[in-house]
Specification:
The complex is a heterodimer of chains A (about 240) and B (about 170).
Chain A lengths: L1 E2 L1 E2 L2 E2 L2 E7 L2 E6 L5 E3 L5 E3 L13 E4 H7 L4 E3 L14 H5 L18 E7 L2 E6 H7 L1 E6 L2 E7 L6 E5 L11 E8 L2 E5 L5 E2 L21 E4 H7 L4 E3 L4
Parallel strand pairs in A: 11-19
Antiparallel strand pairs in A: 2-3, 4-5, 5-6, 6-7, 10-11, 10-18, 12-13, 13-14, 15-16, 16-17
Chain B lengths: L2 H32 L8 H35 L3 H20 L4 H5 L8 E3 L10 E7 L2 E6 H7 L1 E6 L2 E6 L1
Classes of the chains: A mainly beta (about 240), B alpha+beta (about 170).
C-alpha cells in the first residue's frame, strides 16, 4: 500500500510487468516503472524516487468489521467477478512454482512469512509459528517488536514492544480467557490491551502502542529484497 | 534511372524495410520475452527491457514512418507486381508491430481499477473468514478483499484526503 503523491505529482498506476514474481507498475503521468514490493521507481523519469508506505493490515473480514463498522469495502466489478480468486487462493498459491529460490535454513520458497524492516535490519517471522505462538516478543535490529495474533487466530499485527511514556519493557502476556476487546495484559502497568494495540483498562488506558509496518509475503520474495534478513522460528 | 542504379535503390529500400522490421520486432518482442511470468529476470536484462519499453512508442512510429516512405519510393521504382506486393506486406507487418506495441498484455489479463466503487461494510456479501487488506486514514477505514485485489492487483484510490494505491 503506497501513497500516490510523489515529486509534486499525483500518479495513477497500471500493472505493467513482473520482476521475479513481484510485479512492476507504470505510472500514467511520467511512464516510470515502479517495483511493487519496494515502492521504488526502477526506470524512467522518476527513477530512484520512493513512494511512501501506507500502513495496512491483512485481517479477517469479521475482525475488521467489528473494529470499523462504518468502514467501506471495495465492491466486486461484475464484469470480472467470475475470475476472482477463491477464498483459499493463498493456500493454493503455496503450491505454485517460483523462478528464484533461497533454500537457506530449511526454508521453502512459498513459506508464508511476516516481514519487518526496522533499525536497519530485517527479520522474517514464520507465519505458522506466529499464529501458533499467538504472541511473539522479539527484536528486529535494536527495535523491540511485539507480534499479536487476533482472537480470530489468523489476523496478525505488529507493534513496538514499548508503552509510550513508560520506561522499561512492558512484559506483555496473553490473557487466558476470551474477554471481548481485551487480548493482552502487561505486567508494567497492569493494563489490558486490545488487538488494535490500545489499552482498554488500567493505568495505561487510552494509550496505544506504536504500530510497526509488517508485510505478509512468501519467503522467496522477502529474501530477494532483504538479502540479510534473519528468520524467527528457524535456527540459524 | 539506369538498371544498375535502379537495382541499388531497390536494395537500399529493402535494407530500410529490414531495419524497420527488425527494430519494431525487437521493440515489441524483447520486453515481452524478458518480462514474463515464471521466468527469472536478471537485473541488467530487466533494465534494458524497461528502457526499450520506455522508448518503444517512438521506435515503432519512426520505423513505421520510414517503412511507409520506403514503400512509396519503392512503388515508383519497381514495376513488377510481385515485389510491389511483398513491399506492401512488409510495410503492413511493420505497422502491425506498431499496433502490437500499444498493447499492455498485463492490463489485458488483469484490469487495474482507477475508479473503484465501495459499499458499506454491512452491505457487502463477504464471508466472515474472507481475508481483506485494510487501511485507515483519519476517520476513513477501507477494506480490499483479497479475492478481488489479487485479480486486479492495482487499485488507485483516495482514502480520506490521501491518494493511495492498493497493491497485491
Amino acid at each position: 500500500m503506497w501513497t500516490r503523491d510523489v515529486a509534486g505529482l499525483r500518479l495513477t498506476f497500471h500493472l505493467a510487468g513482473i520482476n521475479n514474481q513481484n510485479f512492476l507498475m507504470r505510472d500514467e503521468e511520467t511512464g516510470s516503472y515502479w517495483q511493487q514490493i519496494s515502492g521504488v521507481a526502477v526506470s524512467g523519469p522518476l527513477k530512484g524516487q520512493r513512494l511512501t508506505l501506507v500502513e495496512s493490515d491483512e485481517l479477517l473480514f469479521a475482525t475488521w468489521k467489528a473494529e470499523e463498522p462504518s468502514g467501506t469495502v471495495l465492491k466486486d466489478v461484475q464484469a470480472f467477478s467470475a475470475e476472482y480468486s477463491p477464498k483459499d487462493w493463498d493456500v493454493k498459491m503455496r503450491r505454485a512454482r517460483t523462478v528464484i529460490n533461497f533454500p537457506e535454513h530449511g526454508m521453502k520458497s512459498r513459506d508464508l512469512i511476516l516481514g519487518i524492516q526496522a533499525s536497519e535490519a530485517s527479520r522474517a517471522f514464520l507465519y505458522d509459528k506466529v499464529v501458533k505462538d499467538k504472541l511473539v516478543k522479539d527484536h528486529v535490529g535494536m527495535e523491540p517488536v511485539l507480534l499479536v495474533v487476533g482472537a480470530d487466530g489468523q489476523s496478525v499485527r505488529a507493534f513496538r514492544d514499548r508503552i509510550p511514556d513508560t520506561a522499561g519493557a512492558p512484559e506483555f502476556y496473553r490473557l487466558a480467557a476470551n474477554k471481548p476487546g481485551a487480548l493482552l495484559m502487561d505486567a508494567a502497568t497492569g493494563s489490558e490491551w486490545n488487538f488494535q494495540g490500545c489499552a482498554t483498562s488500567g493505568t495505561a488506558k487510552g494509550t496505544c502502542l506504536e504500530r510497526i509496518p509488517m508485510l505478509k509475503d512468501y519467503w522467496f520474495d522477502w529474501r530477494n529484497y532483504n538479502p540479510n534478513t534473519t528468520i524467527y522460528g528457524k535456527s540459524q | 534511372m539506369t538498371p544498375d542504379s535502379g537495382k541499388r535503390t531497390r536494395r537500399r529500400l529493402a535494407l530500410v524495410w529490414l531495419l524497420c522490421l527488425t527494430g519494431s520486432f525487437l521493440a515489441v518482442a524483447y520486453p515481452l520475452y524478458v518480462i514474463r511470468p515464471f521466468r527469472a529476470q536478471g537485473p541488467q536484462e530487466l533494465a534494458v527491457a524497461l528502457v526499450v519499453l520506455r522508448f518503444r512508442p517512438a521506435i515503432v512510429v519512426i520505423c513505421t514512418g520510414a517503412a511507409l516512405a520506403a514503400l512509396v519510393w519503392y512503388w515508383r521504382v519497381q514495376t513488377r507486381i510481385v515485389w510491389r506486393l511483398l513491399a506492401v506486406a512488409g510495410t503492413a507487418l511493420v505497422a502491425l508491430l506498431a499496433l502490437a506495441a500499444r498493447v499492455n498484455v498485463y492490463e489485458l489479463m488483469f484490469h487495474h481499477l482507477d475508479h473503484p466503487e465501495f459499499a458499506a461494510a454491512d452491505r457487502v456479501k463477504l464471508d466472515d473468514d474472507e481475508k481483506v487488506i485494510v487501511v485507515k486514514i483519519g476517520d476513513a477505514a477501507r477494506a480490499y478483499p483479497i479475492r478481488s485485489i489479487s485479480y486486479h492487483h492495482v487499485v488507485n484510490d483516495v482514502v480520506g484526503q490521501e491518494a493511495i494505491v492498493a497493491t497485491y
